[in-house]
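Most newcomers find our protein records easier to grasp once they have seen one. Read left to right, the backbone structure tokens trace the chain's path through space. Nothing more is needed to start thinking about how sequence determines fold. An example says more than a description, so a record of this kind follows:
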Amino acid sequence: MIVAKEQFPLFNPEQYFTWEEKQTNKHEYINGQIYAMSGGTVNHGRIAIRFTAMFEAHLENTNCITGNSDIKIKMADTHNYTYPDASVTCDERDKNTPNYITYPCLIIEVLSDSTEAYDRGKKFRLYRQNPVLQDYVLVSSTRIEIDLYHKNEAGEWIIINYQEGDIIELKSINLSFPIEQVYRNLTVD
């Protein structure tokens, strides 16, 4: 998804929820500022769908919730809200909040030229404040490449770069799959 800062007055979280309910498009909310979410490319959409379908099938008999780009994430200990392309929460606390989840163990962002720096930088800094998050996955929509930011047992974030021929391992939900499964029948460089 592409993010653009809108020219709105500063909202508090309650005003944001009330206002966004009446909008036709989604908007992220960071430190009182509203950011419009616009559509992505066909590859972007298909990749996001592949992840949510794969997660939903894998987690079918668990208490985990698979989220698509319509499910907001509330940043832990803040009043900031974002819309990742896909997410998974297995935390019981997220079953009591109908408008968002707060404790995802896994977040997927499909990269676009306009959001890559934000997704790798400021957005990841916000996400990693969450004590439950274990895997943050950045997926290229133009080439066969996935970067996995994984929080190890010492609480340190390590980066694993996956390319063609690699097997992706998402420890947060105990799932491994070939990278080609994500890019099947897509046109990429």
